[in-house]
Amino acid sequence: MKLYKTKKDKELYYYYNAKKEKLWCYRHRYDDALGKRREKYKQGFKSENEAYRALLEVKTAILNGDIKQVEKSNLTVSEWLDIWYETHKNEWKRSTREHRKFVIDKYFKPLLGKYKLAELDKTTYKRVFINRLLKQMNPNIVQLLHCIFKAAINAAVVDEILDRNRFTKIKIQKGKKAEKTS
Q1: Is 44 helix (H, G, I), strand (E, B) or coil?
Q2: Is 173 helix (H, G, I), strand (E, B) or coil?
Q3: pTM of this structure
Q4: Among 4, 162, 182, CA closest to 84
Q5: Which of 119, 118, 131, 106 lies closest to 162 in space, CA to CA?
Q6: What is the rounded CA–CA span in Å between residue 145 and residue 61?
Q7: Which of 137, 135, 112, 134 is CA-nearest to residue 124?
Q8: ∠ CA(87), CA(93), CA(97), 5° rounding?
Q9: How far apart are CA 77 and CA 123, in angstroms?
Q10: Which of 159, 150, 152 lies closest to 85, judged by CA?
Q11: What's the longest Cα–Cα distance across the chain?
Q12: Which of 84, 105, 123, 128 is most buried, by CB atoms within 10 Å?
């Protein structure tokens, strides 16, 4: 893919995809906290202004000292859950450790693992995770799984990977599991 510079910013480019559509991207080089050269790259923007706005957000975050958020913006839910589990597993009792490992592997990773942690929103979470599980299991168990996920997200907030936990105000109806529709 050949990149062409735009006149708006020296780190802003446009290119043509396989369908000959004109798309935009940015490539921003910066120094991380240890002084090592890094690059933040994102492509697929439909307009030059959209790409430019995203580039400015990255530059602003870096200038404000939020380098950690910029570096971790490509972290998937699956990758974060692995980091969270490995970091905190020695703080938990053996039964808790085994249960959380099982829940991560059986429910979180298959349903949410591919989503980027910073981009997972409340609606997607409810649709892909909560609503799907409510069709299969008791709401009390879904509530427990939701609490474990919130704990993992709270740890991401504490580690300054996310600015807040978007999933705290989700309500799960108590009662019987939802009817399966054919």
Answers
A1: strand
A2: coil
A3: 0.64
A4: 162
A5: 118
A6: 33
A7: 112
A8: 55
A9: 16
A10: 152
A11: 59
A12: 84
Of 119, 114, 108, the C-alpha closest to 166 is 119
Instruction: Give long-range contacts, CB 8 A cutoff, 24+ apart: 34-42.
Output: 38/71, 40/70, 40/73
pLDDT tens for each residue of 114-137: 999 988 999 999 999 999 999 999
Dihedral over Cα of 64, 70, 76, 79: its sign: negative
Which residue matches tokens 């109806």?
A: 173
Q: Residue-wise pLDDT tens for the chain (182 aa)?
A: 899 999 999 999 999 999 999 999 999 988 776 677 888 889 999 999 999 999 998 888 888 777 766 667 778 899 899 989 999 999 999 999 999 999 999 999 999 999 999 889 999 999 999 999 999 999 999 999 999 999 999 999 998 888 899 999 898 877 655 444 44
DSSP SS3 for 53: helix
What number of other Cβ atoms are within 10 A of residue 117's Cβ? 21
Rounded to whole angstroms, the Cα distance separating 113 from 169 reads 21
Sequence-ordered list of residues with C-beta below 8 angstroms from that of 33, at least 6 positions apart, any chain? 67, 68
CA angle, residues 20, 21, 26, in degrees to nearest 5: 120
Contact partners, residue 131, CB within 8 Å, separation at least 6: none
Task: Specify the DSSP class assigned to residue 176.
Answer: S
Quick check: helix, strand or coil at residue 153?
A: helix
